Amino acid sequence: MCSASAVEAWVSGTWTHSHNHSSLTPPNWLPIGPNEKKGKGREIPEAAERTKDSAGGLNMENLLLQLQRRLFPLLGLLLSFLFVFLSRSSPKVSDRSECSLLPHSHYWIASNRIVTTQGVVSGAVEVKEGKIASVVKGEDWKGDSRTKQIIDYGDAVVMPGLVDVHVHLDDPGRTEWEGFPSGTKAAAAGGITTLIDMPLNSFPSTVSSETLRLKTEAATDNIYVDVGFWGGLVPENAFNATSLEALLSAGALGLKSFMCPSGINDFPMTNASHIKAGLAVLAKYKRPLLVHAEMEQDAQANYLEDGMNNDPRSYSTYLRTRPPSWEEAAIRELLTVSGDTAPGGPAEGAHLHVVHLSDAASSLQLLKEAKGSGHSVTVETCPHYLAFSSEEIEDGDTRFKCSPPIRDAANREILWKAVLEGDIDMLSSDHSPSVPELKLREEGNFLKAWGGISSLQFVLPVTWSHGRKYGVSLEQVALWWSERPAKLSGQESKGSIAVRKQADIVVWEPDVEFFLNEDHPTYLKHPSISAYMGTKLTGKVLATFVRGNLVYGDGKHASAACGATLLSKVPVDV
């Protein structure tokens, strides 16, 4: 519950947030009249109290009880039976009090630092029925403040919610690894308001309209933020245009493929011919193809023959099994077909997106050249490539295993330069958890352990903590984590704080430091496998709003999972 002062402020129409308040959850709101005293609320007559529920509507059970006792005993009894029958047969619908920690849908979010498309401004964002109704700069929003519901965050940053386009939630089929409820709660705790789930690591993989339906059903009523879905491009559907069109028509936001073994049996790798065929179909729908760009070379076969330390517990051993040449070779192959996406090309309208780039030397230059030639290409990297270096990873610490691997500090510096200069377009988490047993922590075998970094709830503070060293601005964080990912995933109504956009907002304090351990409240599943455990970060998330609902505030989540599943609509010309 709020402190007493917060309760009084909310009832009077203006609620000011500060760190000292015990909760962001306001009380049930009752507007006060002009002749009533602040803080006392409105006295409710006893009769009205008996016949109204907590939301202010009629309490049917009490009305029926009065009918039964005072008016028509037999009719009242029949109505009671009818009420019970209808209550049991009606589907469960979550009301606003369950979906949001706020009691109503029209309010103002005030701050001295609001990140907009026109820069960082002081003012307030008006939220009404899930959308941004206005953005008012300066003090103008304070007019008639007694009639407005205001949350004043002071110097905390108000920014568009993060859009994470690269997440493995493993649902359905492997919910012991993650799952929609825990994964989207973690996302909300980290300021992510929209995430796009990858087609593999769940079972079955999402490679058809039917498997997309299964995934959508698993997500429905189980997600705390909005969730969209990438479909899979695999050899079995790549040359079957009918199958791919069915998957895209069912709502997949785009496709994802691997150019090396994925580690998942029902998600085999593709080659340039598969990708070329997939782009031709995607062009009709104007959607992207995301590619894991690594191609096996001879390193894995020869690493035991070089006479060096081949201890499987050694991180340097693992590094040699996936050298930068794998990424370079894959991107060279990929760019043989990416020209199809250029204006006038056979796949104009499609788009290629390279996921989790790690090699900052040769691969980046190839991608820059493709962009300069008019190819429709973008690239992402991930916070773990910007935060860690191979020199820091201790032997046997398999929490850091991922593919492509975390490379040396010099490579990290080049990655940061590319992000800052715009050669890398956006960031994503590549959140890929598993059960702790698969990480083989006791054995410490990098060659056998499951690869993947568990990071969903920490990407904002990790980006900020390390980015501050390079002079990263709040506007850049919003560009990398909100605006550009929203565009890639086709979410035109998201990604910025602007009028008529969905009210997807994160509020965070960029100067607050905190230490991560297994007891940290944002660890919702398998904290022992996170590479970030034991680190100190800067940038604490205070609140996360999804479509105007306060789904996370001061360490608490809304009681109901009211996130939406995001399914693309079929273009009218298809």
TrEMBL record:
Residues 35-52 have a biased composition (Basic and acidic residues). Residues 16-52 are annotated as: Disordered. Its EC number is 3.5.2.5. Pathway: Nitrogen metabolism; (S)-allantoin degradation; allantoate from (S)-allantoin: step 1/1. It is an enzyme of class 3 (hydrolase). GO terms for biological process: allantoin catabolic process; purine nucleobase catabolic process. Residues 157-551 form the Amidohydrolase-related domain. The keyword Protein biosynthesis does not apply. Homotetramer. PANTHER family: ALLANTOINASE (PTHR43668). This is allantoinase. It comes from Linum trigynum.
